[in-house]
Amino acid sequence: MIVEDENCGVGSGEGGRWLRGFGSLIRRKQVDSVHVRRHGQLARKLSAVDLVGIGVGATIGAGVYILIGTVAREQAGPALVISLLIAGIAAGLSAFCYAELACRCPSAGSAYHYTYICIGEGVAWLVGWSLILEYTIGASAVARGITPNLALFFGGEDNLPSFLARHTLPGLEIVVDPCAAALILLVTLLLCLGIKESSTAQSIVTTVNVCVMLFIILGGGYLGFKSGWVGYELSTRYFPYGVNGMFTGSAIVFFSYIGFDSVTSTAEEVKNPQRDLPIGISIALTICCILYMLVAAVIVGLVPYYELNSDTPISSAFSSYGMQWAVYIITTGAVTALFASLLGSILPQPRVFMAMARDGLLPHFFSDIHKGTQIPLKSTIVTGVFAATLAFFMDVSQLAGMVSVGTLLAFTTVAVSVLIIRYVPPDEVPVLSSLLTSVDPLLRHSGGDIGEDGAISHVDPSSYCENSHLHDKSEALIGHPLIIKEVTKDEENEKARRKLASWTIALLCIGILIVTSAASADWCPRILRLTLCGMGGILLLCSIIVLACIKQDDNRHSFGHSGGFACPFVPFLPAACILINTYLLIDLGVGTWLRVSVWMLIGVLVYLFYGRSHSSLLHAIYVPSAYADEIHRSQAIHLA
């Protein structure tokens, strides 16, 4: 795909303007390298151990102390353990995709960064905008949840110090939470000290939380063996709500595994990203899955599932055995889990801001890196102040569902990006027209004519623009060729393979969308739902078969930074990941999507009136990778 310079004359009149506008949505940036790095570098101080601490801390929130009671009581029963295992496997599919892209593109921005490289600017903007919503509301909701847990140490919320207690503003009916705002500001201050300092604090808090969970497992296990595990001696056996209830429980507890993506947001700060990022992601997710399953197995074994307290399942389970004192240990675990989750929610946000500002989609203010701490200090402060203000004035619990949209959208686009890299990796890279002009005299001096060996010739950028609206690369090179070489049979076959793979990936996504939409449309007549599911299923199955049969692109091995982790079972694993996350996205409900639509509409307006016209790719010309490498080498010689 050749994407034109934004200033090139493509078409004329309204049609040309519409074509240029659409072109801005699909323009893709290059994997960050020594050629394109124009901004300050973040400090590379994180090891695999730090990444595990960040991943576990961001993933294990207070949900495990509450959610297991609700799901066991209403959906899964004792089969909650299997529900957690299925959800962990589903989350692991996304983790595999994240691990490959984090190794290939180890820069800040996480899913936004990968989407911009593989899919295009328009989708990347929506992903980044959704992540801003996710992290901000998530941090505010977590901070608001800490206050009632802290109050237990003071004997209730009425006994909290006045400067920490919640108050209702007279006449406005707004409940302010000074404690939540103070905690967010405290975490922001911690993050401003540096990435190593904040990761160390995260590891300490996470260690305390894990120790509490181990106490629950060991102490509960002792009580269970002593009492005979009464929760498992039921006439309903292991599946009181059937297999469907078990899978319903899996869909709910899946969100307990969200958080490992925070690890990839620090990719630019990892000492050895190709080695440490896959280790950090995999170990963190494995630890979380094992701890979740063991805690659930103990709690549903101590108390029959129908007697579990929905609000405090673990504390009430221990209290039923006369261990009321355990509530203070469990509350300590809940508070530390919330604090670690809060830190994990605020940590990625400034790095997403920074990545978007580097690309020109947000003001450059957000991309400034402090010379001392080597972190995006201004972005961190803005993030903390905004989240603290939101937590202080608003009860964001009703908006909590919106958090899931950003995560699931990111998971989906990351899986699609893996398919694109494997089958149709970008074979052209953006080069600024000014750079092309600056090295032009050097290219002419070195021998402007193109020889049989495919050396690079002098080319006028404007003449390239005149032909850049043509989608057929060979046609674009007729008048003023960048590289003269005979089109061989192998090249024609490769072009046909890429075209087939592109259409197949698109049809795969369409098939998944049809299947998941039909499956979630309870209001739709049964016959219509079955028909749509059948059509979408056939399209999905045929697309997977075609992708499995055609050869993956040879350039996938050299795309980005080589030598890292490779996602296994392609295309089956990414396809399953897209299917699961798309279903969960559609199943969030109409109310959630209406609220998200307002935020997305604001994002579209920001992009149209600022991001599109300030993008760093605004004046970029897309050229074949080999030619781009020669341009950069020529520039290096010129500067030397």
Automatic annotation (TrEMBL):
GO terms assigned for molecular function: amino acid transmembrane transporter activity
Subcellular location: Membrane
GO cellular component: membrane
Major subcellular location class: membrane
GO BP, one annotated term: amino acid transport
Ranges for domain Cationic amino acid transporter C-terminal: 565-615
Transmembrane segments: 46-68, 80-99, 111-132, 174-195, 207-225, 237-260, 281-305, 325-347, 375-393, 399-424, 500-521, 527-550, 562-586, 592-610
Top-level lineage group: Eukaryota
Keywords: Membrane, Transmembrane, Transmembrane helix
Protein topology in the membrane: Multi-pass membrane protein
Pfam families given in the database record: AA_permease_2 (PF13520), AA_permease_C (PF13906)
Residues in coiled coil: none
Family the UniProt entry places it in: Belongs to the amino acid-polyamine-organocation (APC) superfamily. Cationic amino acid transporter (CAT) (TC 2.A.3.3) family.
PANTHER family recorded: CATIONIC AMINO ACID TRANSPORTER 4, VACUOLAR (PTHR43243:SF15), INNER MEMBRANE TRANSPORTER YGJI-RELATED (PTHR43243)
Protein's name according to its UniProt entry: Cationic amino acid transporter C-terminal domain-containing protein
Organism whose genome encodes this protein: Glycine max (Soybean)
